Amino acid sequence: MVPGPGPRHHAPTLCFSARLIRKAVPPFRVSNSLFFRSTYPKSASPFSGLTLKTEAPLQDSLPLSAIVAGFIAVIVSFAGPSVLIFQAASAAGLGPDALSSWIWAIAVGSGVSAIWLSWRTRAPVITAWSTPGAAFLVTALPLVPWPEAIGAFVVAAGLLTLLGLSGLFEAVTARLPQSIAAALLAGILFRFGVQVFTELPHEPGLVGAMIATYLVLRRLAPRYAIAGVLAVGTLIAGLSGELAFQGVSIELARPVWVTPVFSWEAIVSLGLPLALITLTGQFVPGVAVLRAFGYQTPSGPLVWGPSALAVPLACFGSHGINLAAITAAICTGPDAHPNPAKRWIAGVALGVFYLVIGAFGATLAAVFAALPAPLVATTAGLALLGAIQGGLAGAMKNDSEREPALLTFLVTASGMSFLGLGAAFWGLVLGLGAYAFLHLRFKKKGHLTP
Prior knowledge:
mainly alpha
C-alpha cells in the first residue's frame, strides 16, 4: 500500500529518527526498585561527542586497565589495613579460626557488595571494611568479650542501615559542593602520593625503576602504565629476595558462627563509636570520591546496601562493610579507564578478587601482607596520581570557593585526630563552615541571608 499525503508520509522518517535516538543513548539499566538508578558521570554524558556507536568491540568489553585497577585496590587493602585486623585479633586473644572467619566475612561482604552495586549503578562503587574502625578495635576490642563484640557489630551495622534507608544521608551529601568534595579527595590521597618519594631513599633501585616505568608507559601506553609498574616492581622485588612468603600456607577458610550477645556496655563503648567512625571515616569520604569524579549515584543505597549485608556477616566476625575512599580513587580515576562510563568494571573485578581472597581467609591475606612496603606504597602512590591531580584541579576550579576548598585540603592532608574523629571529618566540617560563612549575603537591614 502506497502511503498517502499528510502525516502518514512521515511515519518511516519518524521511526528511523526514534531508532537513531535509541542508538545514540547508551543503555541505562534502571532497577524496579526506587533505591537504585544508573547514572553516568557528568563528563560522560550520553550526548557528549558526535559518535552514535554504542557497542564496544570485544577486546574493550573487559579492559585490562580496569581489571588491574581492581587488583591493585585489593592489594592495597590487604597489604596495609589488614594488619590492623591481625593486631586487633591478637590483642583480643582470638584464635586462628576466629581470625580466618573474620577475614572471610569482610572479604566476602566487600566482594558481594562491590559487584552488586557496581553492576546495578554502572558506577565504580568500591566497598571495603572500616580501616579506622579496625584501628579503633586494636585498643577497644580487648575490653569486651567476643560474643558481646559481635552483638555490638550487629547494632552498628543496623544503625547505619537505618540511616541509609531514612534518606538523611542522601539529603546531606546531595548538597555537598563539588569543590569541597574534590578537596577532600585530594587531602585523603595526598600522603599516598608523597609516600612514593619518602620510600625512594630507602629503596632507590626498586622505587626508581617503578617511577621510570610509569613515566615511559605514560608516554607510550598510558592505559597500561600501572600494570607495568606493578609487574616491574614485583619482578625486581622477587629477584632481590624481598618477597617474604616463607611460612605462609594457603588453606580454605572455615566460617565460624558466633551467636551475638547484646549488652549496653558493649553497644555504648564499642557499637556506637564504631558506627560513627565508619560513617565519618568511610561513607562520607567514599561518597565524596564518587562526586569528585562526577558520579551522581544516589548515596542512600551506598550506605544501607553494604551495611545491611554486614548485619548477618557480623556473626562471623565482620566489624562492618562500607564504602572505600583510598582504594576507590584507584578505580574511579582515569587510569582505571579513559571512559568514565566503563570504570564500573573495576568495581566488579575488585569484588571478584575479594571473593577469591575470602575463600582462603587469613592465609591468602597474609600473602599480600608479606609484600614489601615500598612496592605497595609506590604502586598505590603512582596509581593515585591522576586522582590527586583531578582533586586539586576540581578544588581550585571556582575562584569564589578556593579558600574553603584549600582549608578542607589542608586539614584533611594533615592527618590530625580530635575527639576521636579523623582528619577527613574535620576537614569537611571546617570546609563546609567556611563555605557557608563566606557565601552569606547581607541585606540592607543587617540580616544575613545565604
